[in-house]
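Good morning C.,

I know you're traveling, so I'll keep this short. The sequence:
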Amino acid sequence: MPSSSPPATQDRRNRDRVRDNQRRSRARKREYIQELEQRLRLAEQRGVQASLELQAAARQVAEENKKLRLLLRLHGVSDRSIDAYLAGESRIGERGGRHGRGPPAPPAPPAPAPKPAAAQRLERLLRPETCPVTLAAASTPSSDQGDKNNCAMAADLISTMTGVNPHEVRASLGCVPAADCHVDDARIGSAIERFTESGAVT
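The tokens, ready to paste straight into the viewer:
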């Protein structure tokens, strides 16, 4: 019985080897594509997470800036003065960056004048010396002067400064629950003095 010739056997082996190589190449390509897709998904997830964290940080900074502006207004600093100061600091920073160093130090300020009693009470609020008190809900006449502030934000600020329960502060300011109401600086100052005097008594 005649056997296969050596050239035919060799040719079949070559074809089998080519098919095996092609199959392995396709398998490696699929694995590589799957790996790239997985990396892309991870990068997208990280990008979304970073974007959410950045947005949360921006909201927190904006909220803190609002509270700081409110606190400065309670100390008698107007929004116009705050904006002018920030604009001046920005220009100084730009000049310092261009010239490689900052401006010379300003001269020492003069000795401060004696502070009125209201200012002294406000300074005491900045130190955690008062303890929580319970006050009945009271209504304070609002003034037409001064800027309007978000009631919830003002109540949180007063609560942080005095240690009084935020619900009591909102009731004292006349805030309506679950409503986006506003309160002026005069009412906030009156509430701060009332809570401070009550804390001093206790």
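Safe travels,
E.
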